[in-house]
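**User:** I keep going back and forth on a fold encoding question. It is easy to fool oneself when nobody else works the same problem. Could you pick a protein and write out its sequence and tokenised fold? Could you put it straight underneath, so I can go through it closely?

**Assistant:**
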Amino acid sequence: MSPSSTTRSPAGPGSSQPSRWELRTCGRRGHVTYLPDETELADRLSGHTGAGRVWRCLRCGDFVLGRPKLSGPADQAPLVLRGKALRSAIILRLLALERVLRTLLLSLAVYGVLRFKSARTSIQDALTRDLPAFRASGIHVDQLALVRELQHALATQPSRLNLVAALLAGYAAIEAVEAVGLWLLARWGEYFAAVATAVFLPLEVRELLKGVTFTRGAAFVINVAAVIYLLFAKRLFGLRGGRRAYDAERRGEQLLEVERSALSGPGGQGGPAHDARTAPATGEGVTGTQTHTGDRRDR
């Protein structure tokens, strides 16, 4: 964003500058400016400069030259991710990417099991032909873990291999649904991810009891942290006030709500349109990465 198109408002008393995530989001996706129908609110969100009228971004708090992108009643303004909501969105999408990686790995495992099943005869013939030669040369191939596991797999019934492939495919589907729900920042996705992840924790504990590896340990730590975070930070299942407290927190971070509170508070008056060069930056770290229309639904 060029300096001629935006004007940064200095932080006033009790306010804070937007974080780098918020600034990067506006730089990448553009500012969100809004013209409310309420005259006093419109005056507080706009200002005049020598280059023309400017409007305050609902994400980062900068004043932007030009006409506002959206307009309408203040109650219908888009809910913009900012502050804690923005940081939460970043965490959820990182979890979604981790779920995508798991989905890919599980899909490869399904493919490997099915390919192994179709090639069992040729693999068995190769082992029958080559293992005696290795034994004769003094190589203790029967003591190799890979050979033992392969022989055990070859002894497995085809129907059991089909069951393993089906279970892996089902697990991959669950991870894919989690990834979609978390990436969309949907309330159902948060519930689904918390329940699905918690259900599989006992299985992960059993695997850890068989032997601790970096992969198993890292996966277990990530999943435990994800469940705790979703339950408490997203206020699932009525924790910390539930959905009502979550929505109230989100509304309290919106710039329009901050300005409306300033109007209704002691000494809060709309007044005439002000100069953006002296406009105080009201509210908390005013910011967000995107218009989050999905939060309007009752989740």
Remarks:
- The chain has a mean pLDDT of 77.
